[in-house]
Design brief:
The protein has about 160 residues and is mainly alpha-helical. Helices cover about 60% and strands about 5% of the residues. It contains five helices and two strands, in the order E-E-H-H-H-H-H. It is elongated and about 70 Å long.
């Protein structure tokens, strides 16, 4: 199976042009060539390993793989990683700031509620982190309900 050198879409073996973006594919009719790359050649690893690594350090590795890998499966997981773990990090920062400030205002009850909410967000992040890495390694396009739709709106459908 070959991939387009420009957009990363799957290209038929005997095709001269990419069906997705129209880029000419050199040497497509004469068999495999160095410009037509198979799945592991773009980042030196298979799609499922690259998909797993998109989640390894949260949104940071999501950004890295979104920039360096053009395969649709990897870009999907990278975009979902950016939105999911970036959103959870922002949410935990906001919760910590609001309820941490309430401690200085003298509200111990609100602080304990905020601490429990902060712990819940962190627990959700850890569970999602494990599940998403396992699903990506199994070559499954597991969609986090809100985050996957938001990622498609922001980064485009991959």
């Amino acid at each position: 199976m070959a991939f387009c050198t420009k957009c990363g879409a799957t290209v038929a073996d005997n095709s001269s042009f990419c069906a997705a973006c129209g880029t000419p594919q050199t040497g497509a009719s004469s068999g495999p060539s160095p410009t037509l790359v198979s799945a592991p050649a773009q980042t030196g690893m298979s799609e499922n390993v690259a998909g797993l690594l998109c989640y390894l350090v949260g949104w940071i590795t999501g950004i890295i793989f979104y920039c360096i890998d053009k395969r649709p499966f990897v870009r999907f997981h990278a975009a979902q990683s950016i939105v999911t773990f970036g959103g959870l990090q922002i949410l935990s920062f906001v919760i910590g700031a609001i309820f941490g400030f309430s401690l200085f205002a003298g509200g111990f009850g609100a602080f304990s509620f905020g601490y429990a909410l902060y712990g819940l967000v962190e627990l959700v992040a850890v569970v999602l982190w494990i599940v998403l890495m396992i699903k990506a390694y199994q070559h499954d396009r597991f969609r986090v309900p809100v985050a996957a739709d938001l990622a498609e709106k922001i980064f485009g459908k991959s």
